[in-house]
Please model this.
Amino acid sequence: MHADDVVNCHVLVIGSGGAGARAALEASRYGKTVLVSRTLTGKGGCTTMAEGGYNAVLRKLDSCPMHVEDTLRGGAFLNDPALVDVLVHEAPDRMADLIAWGAVFDVTDDREIAQRPFGGQRFPRTCYAGDRTGHEMMATLVERLRGSGVRQLQDTAVIELLKDGNRVTGAAMLDRDGDLIICYADATVLATGGGTRIYDISTNCAAGTGDGFALGYRAGAELIDMEMVQFHPTGAVYPYDARGRLITEAVRGEGGLLLNRDGERFMTRYDPERMELSTRDVVSRSIATEILEGRGTPHGGVYLDVSHLPARTIEERLPVMLEQFLAFGVDIRKEPMEVAPTAHHIMGGLRITPEGQTTLPGLFACGEVTGGVHGANRLGGNALADTQVFGKRAGESAGKEAVRGGTVARSRIEELRAHLDGYYGGTTPPAEIVGRLRLAMWDGAGIFRTEKSLVETGRVIDELAALTPRAAGSQNLLWCRTVENMIVLSRLIVKGALLRPESRGAHVRKDILQDWTPDRSPYMHTYQSLSRAGIETREVQV
Amino acid sequence: MKEMTVRVSRFDPENDTEPHFETYTVSVHEGARVLHVLHVIHDTLDPTLSYRYCCEAGQCGSCSLRVNGEPVLACMQEAKDGMTIEPLNLPVVRDLTVEMEDVLARLAPFPAREEAGLPTKEEIEAMKPLRDCIECLSCVSECPAVDVASFLGPTAMCQEMRIALDPRADQNRIRNAIEEGLFTCTTCQRCRDVCPKNIEIPGKAIEKLREIANRQGLTLPRHQDVARLVEDTGRSVDRTKPTFLEQVPEVIEPDGPVRGEVGFFVGCMYNGRLPETALDMIEVMKRNGIRLIIPHDQVCCGSPLIRTGQTRILPALKKRNIEAFTRRGITTVMTMCAGCGSTLKNDYDTPYTIKDVTEILTEYGIEPPAALDIRATYHDPCHLLRGQGISREPRELLKTVVREFVEMPSRCCGAGGGVRSGLPDQAAALGRQRDDEIKKTHADVVVTVCPFCEFHIADSTDRPVKNICTLLLEGYREKDRKKGVKKESE
Model:
């Protein structure tokens, strides 16, 4: 391994998706900012894949209190109300930023930002750019970054946060050749996104390996509600290798119908009021139940049909869906899609203040790596808004941190180096560990959970954690580290699920009977850190 | 599960001087994409294999590479047994991973104007097709101009046009676009063909940017000369010898019975520079029973103006050309210039059908010529292959008239898009690349169906360059000669 390079900056932003890019733009107003991208900025992360939209209150008939209530109700009242308040009130301003920076969102004939209905919302408040909304946002942010002073480290991934005492003072990273880079920063923003790649079936991009949860946890930050994993109702089921690929909620927003093998519009039995546009947790469970009870399609899904819509509507509003399905031999203008739930979003994450401050000094976080904004179930369209609202806030808070110039004990870096070198003598191919992990998580910590299934999954995780992933060359070191991160995240999810003795939102414990609705639950956040773990309780007036 | 064997280009910068192929046999699921084959190789056979990917849903543009020479998104392209997987034609970092940052970092930032407000629906709709770009750089990989000139590539032009269309942009960036290489594009349309999002960059971005440049007086001087010539004479080439139209009557009857009738749109090059070739075509038509009607009041189709962004007088040209043929009740108009054909088919709204000469000859069927004792190769004119989707007909005709036909890779010769007149050095460099391919074929003659290609390639190679009609006529003459010899000997 070569001598480590050293990068100094005021703010280090880890992750180049929607939240990270927005944080970096904001932080750069205060001082030298470095944006680390595991891939190439604009190409990594899940924002660019996000299809459906961005929720913002823009119309007179809509209101912030209504958006707040929809979000809390959708989140089974586990959300942190202060974070929800910020999300809802600032989403329109952050949308205005994007528009001012050149974002090409769909507009109405009256020259207003167009909005579509999304699940769990009483007003059509989801702004969109066709069904490539996230891509549009990333394109806009990347255009903005090009003109900013933000230094971008491409093809570079953080493997550990570095600390001076209790304060985060930067990070250790690997470049694409596997060489170590040390970055010192007055403030660090974690914006690494989600991690549902730990499940066998997932919508996430290749970078959705949950590195930020692991980085934060190992550094000593506290995480909340890690058991809250959203299973998106509609993922592709065919071909096998593309299983889990996201079929946007916009398909249902535009009028798509869910049908079982018998052609029955089965949502009438689960949520007759909201039907296909119920919240994601409800629709996912409904689809999973249909499949489990034998009313699924030959490929093991249910039908999602838009063939009754005018072809033009599909071509204009759902062009990416149309193109993707055509590539797989299905013309959605004429035939139904087959869909099944797929691991999509991690609602839990680092505990933050509305300013994006984590429980560790010097460390800020934004986007999917944080917890509390979405509670026990996220509304479609709230994640893209989250990236911008809290991206800006975390970037600003980090930017305002004092200049201090941190140091890191040399021995810590030597330790890391030794750990990396250990991969060369590893026991097991990384892909083998990940393959087993994904199946175990899907089977035991998926849509339906029991104590037994969770304990069994925990046992498999322990077994896998005892293995050392093997690197064939320096360019494999990152993949080995990632595997370790995936194991950390899986443990956090399983432990969180065991800590929460109730069903709530996306978390369903089939072995627990409860007589309360979410709003009357005696429980609040689960929390986990290196030093403590548990579940918060509250007094509920009967 | 199914098994497939694939070849993958490997390159380790520390140990290799150049890439080499490795062959792998893998087992994959039904419907597997190219990317999944790479995953299996990486996960089970060779973990050092380097390739980019991220979203696996065709949206991030990371996994672009070449399969059997054609750029694709690895995550969307179905894997096939026997395929060859190579990196894009960009600097290779390792194996299939290429340097993308060099280009991406130089794409234009958006010059946002404060308080600009929302664009209108029409403005948004105009920008949207360009906004589909996922910056996968497939187009940059394939662009012949990028190869030989200082051109940032089609992606960069897509971005410049997106900015030019946006009312929120406060900066006129047309000079930046020119610096990035606006005038180096030959409008060969290869970028459009390889774009996974089907963005029509030449027509929707480059020609439109050239129009903006034109309105600001930034058109290349040589191109301005052409526009002036068209305006003054109705023709894009000056008169240096008797033109085709000066030499022929309005109606040319076939030798035998009339099997068909078409109008003929001659185009400026065949009219003024290569009338002999057009006269050869007439002989072929006469021999095959096709009556030609040649309105003498036809003018330049406007292609040289559209390609260079000088469209001011285009409506007048269109009107004249449409009327010239409709007045005579013509329902099918034949072109033999690929550029004219592509323009009439794609840029005009004609009340008559347009067909290339090779389509007409194939549809009517021709008297077989004698096979000349030569080895011939064929150069696909961009405006015929991609502009009109014609590749089969000229090859079939050609095979009837030569002893041996040999393919060469299809690529722009450098003559189009105003590059030959505006940037002759670049055009010559592309011409030399064509000559390299021609040499590899050891062909005696190069055949094509476009006067621009014919004229330009002839400048670049020592092989004779001929239109398919000329060759057919030679085949007929040879046939007649043999018949004559036979008669004499009887």
Notes: The radius of gyration of chain B is 25 Å.
